[in-house]
Amino acid sequence: MRATGAPASSTRRIWSEPCDQVRDSRPGFGLVAAGEHGTVTGIIDVTVEVELATIDTVAVHPDHQNQGLGRALLAGVGACASALGVPILDAWARDEPDALRWYRAMGFIASRHYVH
Predict the structure, then answer these.
(1) 5 falls in which pLDDT band (50, 70, 90)?
(2) Which residue, 23, 49, 67, 112, is the most exposed by fewest CB within 10 angstroms?
(3) CB 30, CB 43: distance < 8 Å
(4) Residues 74, 69: Cα–Cα separation, whole Å
(5) What is the CATH number of the domain that holds 98?
(6) Where are the alpha helices (DSSP H) in 1-116?
(7) C-alpha distances out from residue 6 to 25, 38, 103, Å
């Protein structure tokens, strides 16, 4: 898979467990993105509870940001959630401007805020 906007030489792969195995084994799944030599460049972890999939962690290595990798990981989550029949995707995010900006750009809408 080539991340959107990345040069042709920076081929990326997204690895995941087959979505149908997730349903039977544990309440969630993760995707890992790796560069040409197997170096981890991004991750996303999701918890699934009946009709709700929640993104717990999404991270892309700074050297690989702004190349569409986070977007590709999110697309993989959407495909897996859909395959599992999970209609709702949400996320917990820190009140950090860059993170909030990314989630908004991906179509998320802030619905609750909390202080800890």
Answers:
(1) very low
(2) 112
(3) yes
(4) 9
(5) 3.40.630.30
(6) 19-25, 69-83, 97-105
(7) 35, 17, 20
State the residue range of the domain holding 72: 13-105
Residue in the block written with tokens 């993760």? 30
- Does 52 reside within a domain? yes
Say if residues 45 and 105 touch (Cβ distance below 8 Å): no
* Pick from 76, 78, 8: nearest CA to 42: 76
Judged on CB neighbours under 10 Å (0-12, 13-18, 19+), 14 is: buried
User: With contact defined as beta carbons under 8 Å apart, do 110 and 97 qualify?
Assistant: no
pTM: 0.76
Q: Furthest-apart CA pair in the chain: how many Å?
A: 43
In this predicted model, what pLDDT tens digit does every residue of 41-90 receive, in sequence order? Answer: 999 999 999 899 999 999 999 999 999 999 999 999 999 999 989 999 99
